[in-house]
Amino acid sequence: SRAANAIAVDWKAPGQPANAQLFDLLRKPVAEGGGRGGEGGGGGSRPQGSIADGLAAADKKLEQTYTVAYIAHAPLEPRAAVAEWKEGKLTVWTGTQRPFGVRSELAAAFRIPEDKVRVIMPDTGSGYGGKHTAECAIEAARLARAAGKPVKLVWTREEEFTWAYFRPAGVIDVKSGVKNNGLITAWEFHNYNSGNAGIQTKYDLPNHNIQFHGSQS
């Protein structure tokens, strides 16, 4: 901590859009390739039927937009890791939701085969979707290699909010139609930027279009 504070840093960050402009911005620079239904990955399904026909047959219609804020995950336990190098092999203990991905990132960072990297995942103090990547594990491993002995690293709460990645912002546009007897006649669902996992519906709908749109913002 004292060493980090002793480093003189002079850097400039690109301008970031304000929250008022963010959600309109996410809709515009959609990545090439258009929407993705996410078949095979749980992201959605191919369009079926006609949304226009489904809305025309509906007794009630509802159109709504929902937004997902760009905020820190704020896990109860800040990121932490213990790293040890021994006989050319690396062992890291770290709280993560993605141990095999962390192993791959460690192997790539130090240019060693994955079979020389072991990631042990102790009980983890929450994550809220924010403990997927290996920043803290890589940092601990670098320090351990330089020190020639095991190193334990725990981010402070300030470091957690400063350096950890944030939850991606998103916009979700939904247009639907339903009969008085409860039958959904139309379901149009567009998710911009906030991920395609689990956006498919479990209902058998005659007219639906469910898509995820990646943003370049």
General description of the model:
- By secondary structure, the protein is an alpha+beta fold.
- Helices cover 24% and strands 27% of the residues.
- The protein has six helices and nine strands.
- It has helices spanning 2-6, 19-27, 51-56, 99-110, 135-147, 157-163; strands spanning 45-48, 60-68, 80-86, 89-94, 117-120, 151-154, 170-178, 184-192, 208-213.
- The strands form two sheets. It has a five-stranded mixed beta sheet with strand order 1-9-8-7-2. A four-stranded mixed beta sheet has the order 5-4-3-6, covered by helices on one side.
- A hairpin with a 5-residue loop joins β7 (170-178) and β8 (184-192).
- It is elongated, with a radius of gyration of 23 Å.
- The two termini are 33 Å apart.
- Residues 38-42 have low confidence and may be disordered.
